[in-house]
From TrEMBL, chain A:
Organism: Glaciecola punicea ACAM 611
Protein name: Lysyl-tRNA synthetase
Domain of life: Bacteria
Domain called Aminoacyl-transfer RNA synthetases class-II family profile: residue spans: 17-333
Quaternary structure annotation from Swiss-Prot or TrEMBL: Homodimer.
Catalytic activity: D-beta-lysine + L-lysyl-[protein] + ATP = N(6)-((3R)-3,6-diaminohexanoyl)-L-lysyl-[protein] + AMP + diphosphate + H(+)
GO molecular function, one term: ATP binding
Gene Ontology BP terms: lysyl-tRNA aminoacylation
Coiled coil feature spans: none
Keywords assigned by UniProt, alphabetized: Aminoacyl-tRNA synthetase, ATP-binding, Ligase, Nucleotide-binding
PROSITE patterns: AA_TRNA_LIGASE_II
GO cellular component: cytosol
Pfam family, one: tRNA-synt_2
TrEMBL record, chain B:
Subcellular locations according to the entry: Cytoplasm
Cellular component annotations (GO), alphabetically ordered: cytosol
NCBIfam families: efp (TIGR00038), PRK00529.1 (NF001810)
CDD domains found in the cross-reference section: S1_EF-P_repeat_1, S1_EF-P_repeat_2
SMART domains associated with the record: EFP (SM01185), Elong-fact-P_C (SM00841)
PANTHER family assigned: ELONGATION FACTOR P, ELONGATION FACTOR P (EF-P) FAMILY PROTEIN
Domain Translation elongation factor P/YeiP central, residue spans: 69-123
Domain Elongation factor P C-terminal: 131-186
Superkingdom field: Bacteria
Protein name: Elongation factor P
Organism expressing this protein natively: Glaciecola punicea ACAM 611
Keywords tagged on the record: Cytoplasm, Elongation factor, Hydroxylation, Protein biosynthesis
Alphabetical list of InterPro entries matching this protein: Elong-fact-P_C, NA-bd_OB-fold, Rib_uL2_dom2, Transl_elong_fac_P/YeiP, Transl_elong_KOW-like, Transl_elong_P/YeiP_cen, Transl_elong_P/YeiP_CS, Transl_elongation_fac_P
GO MF annotation: an example: translation elongation factor activity
Length: 336, 189
């Protein structure tokens, strides 16, 4: 008999999943962080060059046209609008959607935990993430390392100072020359000033994934800090101008969380969105309109805060020592 | 020739790389969000048998290898080629020394082996997991010895040398695991 209707997680795992969600809610209730819900659908989406949103159409009865609505890739913009409106500390447990993401640790629809703490420094938030991980993963400690130190330790070069020709040489020695060739061939406009930044970030990322990730976060989760400024996303820059106030958490080869000291300056944010779109065009991707509701909220004033997003499915995978994300989901993309 | 995109990558897919047919052993899709998505693969080159790791940009395409596995019974060797037959169609295929390789020592007449064909020609011959072969040479064991005290070497009729328990004697047929080259048991009569 066909068994493809069956859930990919066992009922026992689903009980543990419910317990984890409860544990997370208790964690934030004790810290007086307000649980919020924001819409999964939005008229606008992100401009990231490396993330694609899914979308759907909304049609009113009798209407001649449909409006396009994007499924959120994370609840970040809507939550920041609540922060700008005076919500205070907030957290959300919700579904997020990312196109083209299927694999051992990827599912196009997944559960995200995102929270924002007003007046927190980045280190203060890292410590809070550590507390949550120690409680949920039953680990005694969390390590911390800087992005540059990890590259110097495992690959013997400084990622902030290295130039492209040296990076190409390093890749050739590591047998990645075909990969780099393919990256270069894929640039729609390799004369563009953004092209070299895109190439460098993609190469650093692949080196990080193939030569560093498996060597960190083995016994304890590792928090990586001080990413290059070009990977700042929505984080502020360090006063040195070269690194971003961003952190990521790695455990057993899996990226688990991504946090920022949130950029509150509307002008700088607008410039980053514009740069993102220029990068998208270099990659031959469509330009995404900038979310004006989000921009208006920033112009009205976002309080200084630190925020982080954490993959709940991955957290459960690691807590239960499961090998694939679908083992902790009731139904994955395979039979949803 | 057909092409595969990286999103079709999975264990068992046969692709061409450096002019050689290869088998994908493992594939992992990585989408870090800070750089382009990529696929990390572990690949076995089917002719040389070498395994290697390779990183692909997601969305890249690669030529498919015209490779198929077929189950054929081993017939005989003429010294230059090893001849196999499809038990249903009676079609015969000859494999050369390179394709047979070290597995020559596990070839038993009428055993069904897996032949990997590339463009119709055999490149790898894989014997069954277990084969039964007669011992043609081994020292007489001590009387009263039972299983597992290190054993002794025994030469089989195909030329293979395996360690067998001391109580197993010349002329007996033994069952051997071809993947490890280890003695499994005496053959059932």
């Amino acid at each position: 008999m066909n068994q493809s209707w069956q859930p990919s997680a066992s009922i026992e795992t689903l009980r543990k999943r419910a317990a984890l969600l409860h544990q997370i809610r208790v964690f934030f209730a004790q810290r007086k962080v307000l649980e919020v819900e924001t819409p999964a659908l939005s008229s606008h989406t992100i401009t990231d060059p490396y993330l694609e949103a899914m979308h759907t159409l909304h049609t009113q009865v009798g209407a001649f046209t449909s409006s396009k609505l994007y499924l959120q890739t994370s609840p970040e913009y809507a939550m920041k609008r609540l922060l700008a409106a005076g919500s205070g500390d907030i957290f959300q447990l919700c579904k997020a959607f990312r196109d083209d993401e299927v694999g051992r640790i990827h599912n196009p629809e997944f559960t995200i935990l995102e929270w924002y703490r007003i007046g927190f420094s980045l280190q203060h938030l890292i410590d809070e993430v550590g507390s949550l991980l120690m409680a949920t993963l039953k680990v005694e400690a969390v390590n911390q390392s800087s992005y540059s130190v990890l590259f110097e330790r495992h690959l013997a070069f400084n990622p902030l100072e290295v130039d492209l020709p040296s990076l190409f040489e390093i890749c050739a020695k590591l047998g990645l020359q075909d990969y780099v060739g393919s990256l270069r061939a894929n640039l729609a406009d390799d004369e563009n000033t953004h092209a070299s930044v895109l190439l460098k970030d993609s190469i650093l990322q692949v080196l990080f994934s193939t030569h560093i990730e498996s060597l960190i976060g083995i016994d304890y989760p590792t928090v990586v800090v001080d990413f290059p400024a070009s990977q700042a996303s929505l984080a502020t820059l360090h006063e040195n101008g070269r690194t971003a106030n961003r952190f990521e958490v790695y455990y057993k080869g899996i990226e688990l969380a991504n946090g920022f000291d949130e950029l509150t300056d509307a002008q700088s944010q607008h410039l980053r969105f514009a740069q993102d779109n220029q990068k998208r065009s270099v990659l031959g991707l469509s330009i995404k309109p900038i979310d004006m509701h989000f921009m208006a909220a920033l112009f009205s004033g976002l309080p200084q805060c630190a925020g982080v997003a954490l993959g709940v499915d991955r957290l459960l995978m690691l807590a239960l020592q499961k090998n694939t994300i679908e083992e902790v989901m009731s139904f994955s993309q395979r039979n949803c | 020739m057909a092409n595969y995109s990286t999103n079709e990558f999975k264990a068992g897919l046969k692709i061409m790389m450096d002019g050689e047919p290869c088998n994908i052993l493992e594939n992992e899709y990585v989408k870090p969000g800070k750089g382009q998505a990529f696929n990390r693969t572990k690949i076995r080159k089917l002719v040389s048998g070498k395994t290697l790791e390779k990183t692909w940009r997601s969305g890249e395409t690669v030529e498919a290898a015209d490779v198929m596995d077929t189950d054929l019974a081993y017939l005989y060797t003429d010294g230059e080629f090893w001849h196999f037959m499809n038990n249903e169609t009676f079609e015969q295929i000859a494999a050369d020394q390179k394709a047979v390789g070290d597995n020559v020592k596990w070839l038993v007449e009428n055993d069904v082996c897996t032949l990997t064909l590339f463009n119709g020609s055999p490149i790898v011959v894989t014997p069954p997991n277990f084969v039964e072969i007669e011992i043609v040479e081994t020292d007489p064991g001590l009387k009263g010895d039972t299983a597992g005290t290190g054993g002794k070497p025994a030469t089989l009729s195909t030329g293979a040398v395996v360690r067998v328990p001391l109580f197993v004697q010349k002329g007996e047929v033994v069952k051997v695991d071809t993947r490890s080259g280890e003695y499994a048991s005496r053959a059932q009569k």
